Amino acid sequence: MPETESGAGLLEQAPPAPDLALRPAIDPGRKPRRGRSRRRRGVPSGRPLTSPGNFAPALGLGMVVLYLSVIVLIPLAAVAWRSTGQGLDGFWHAINRPEASSTLKLTIGASLLVALVNLVMGTAIAWLLVRDRLPGRALIDMLIDLPFALPTIVAGLALLTVYGTNSPVGLNLAYTRAGVVVALLFVTLPFVVRTVQPVLLELDREMEEAAASLGARPATIFVRIILPNIAPAMAAGTALAFARAMSEFGSTVLISGNLPFKTQVASVHIFNQLESDNVTGAAAVSTVLLIVSLFVLVGLDLLQRWAARRG
Amino acid sequence: MSIKVNRVNKTFGEFVALDDVTVDIPAGSLTALLGPSGGGKSTLLRVIAGLEKPDSGLVEIEGREANHLPVQERGVGFVFQHYAAFKHLTVARNVAFGLEIRKRPKAEIKKRVAELLELVHLENFAHRYPSQLSGGQRQRMALARALAVEPAVLLLDEPFGALDAQVRKELRIWLRKLHEEVHVTTVFVTHDQEEAMEVADSIVVMANGKVEQIGSPDDLYDKPANDFVMSFLGPVTKLGGQLVRPHDLELFTVPEQDTVAATVERVTRLGFEVRVDLNVNGRAGPEGGPDEVWAQVTRGTAEQFALEPGKTVHIRRAPDRLVQPARSA
Q1: Measured between CA atoms, how close is B213 to chain A, in angstroms?
Q2: How many A×B Cβ pairs under 8 Å?
Q3: Domain ranges in chain A?
Q4: Does the A71-310 domain belong in CATH 1.10.60.30?
């Protein structure tokens, strides 16, 4: 039995602590001060960007910024600019029109719902694929990617065939919000599965055995050991699913019927506004989507930085 | 806190991991399970811990039949080769885990964790994450974590196997000192005979799922039960078809009783020791070539005999050091 007094006794008799004695031999770079070792790790050991006589890094950075600007940043800025073409009041007015606010509420609400369902179901599917020896696992594993590979309009058509007005299974979701949600679930299925699966595969099973030997029951092991280790992946997959659901067009356009105030999603709304020459209205709704996506992205990045720092 | 393993069998598909294994581990001892890879020693350790279920046979811990007990209730501390650190928890939280599960008061946990971190010399690393520790530090953290719940027995599966040689040697000595302090019945798995001899007070030699011999390091070295144990525990060479320790060969310049003549093939200096490769004159080896034997002598002896290739010496097994297996394997 470990005794506390004897523990202190050992310290007096023991030779110098192994880590003190050995550190130069095994880890010459590491200093006990935490901040220092962090910083050392964070900085790549290459030449600094501004090193004279070597323009390659600067050139590379320039290329990336230019490309990103032309392809992504400038068009996005243009949309944001366009949305305030009639001043901030115009922007507020545009997104507060009943049709616009209704479509935004539907899109954001349905996307949140879909993201949450994915969080639970995607994690469960990843778990089954990695941990259970269920028959036909390879086939299921392959089918998960189908929504990735399929043109989304095909997904829409498929859903309309099964859950449409002439539904062979007697479930008519056409022109309903439920239909929108089902379509979004269809196309976002792979995200959480494919982010959680590799992390689960890599997860050290001995951690779970160690926890069990320390007295933890399976439920405790799941909550205290497994969940914290896969949570960053779960969050990343959920965020991706959410972002994808917000932008979805093809799969929802058929089954939703695009009824304003009822089933019209934001992307279809934007399309319709452009068709009817309301560019400011389209840009305003787009900007809201852009801002929400940015928030999700920044949140995800913060989460991953936090997870990476933790090791 | 004794451990009894009685006639335990375990197979994985076709592979027989444990074949009718019976081992008694007395309370408070420091026992090594020694053997080549795939010999069943890790499986035996995991069966004792409750991480594997035996196909048949009995496991007793503290005189209590443990077969039906899940790992959570066996009161074992388990240390893994690759540390099994909880990556998402700090060193202090790793060590506290078992106590938190047991819902001990916060103040008590804090105190106990501090004591254990001091015991394993990690008191300055309490708030680091395992990824910020070296291998040796991680393993000491894992040890503190296992000791936190005051286990009846401490089981270590190749605890130093993933560490480099220098750290390994330090931790061996440290483990033995720790055992002298905390006196918990300890079983560790190793494939390194030097490690087993240096650390353990009792060694169980295993091969092919069977126990070959159980005894103290001296017993095993001086009275090996068979050729396998003899060759696994230390260097051997063959003279006249029988295994002999190379340092138990006597060299003479002139024939003596029971000696055979041999020609020096090569002399290799290894610091204090000298390895002398010899061919026994007029005798064929098992493959038809020369009958080769090697002797381990001190530098002094080598110089005294002026050993050099081509020289003829007379050799015999030292009569007072008759080390040979009790039975042939």
Answers
A1: 28
A2: 142
A3: 71-310
A4: no
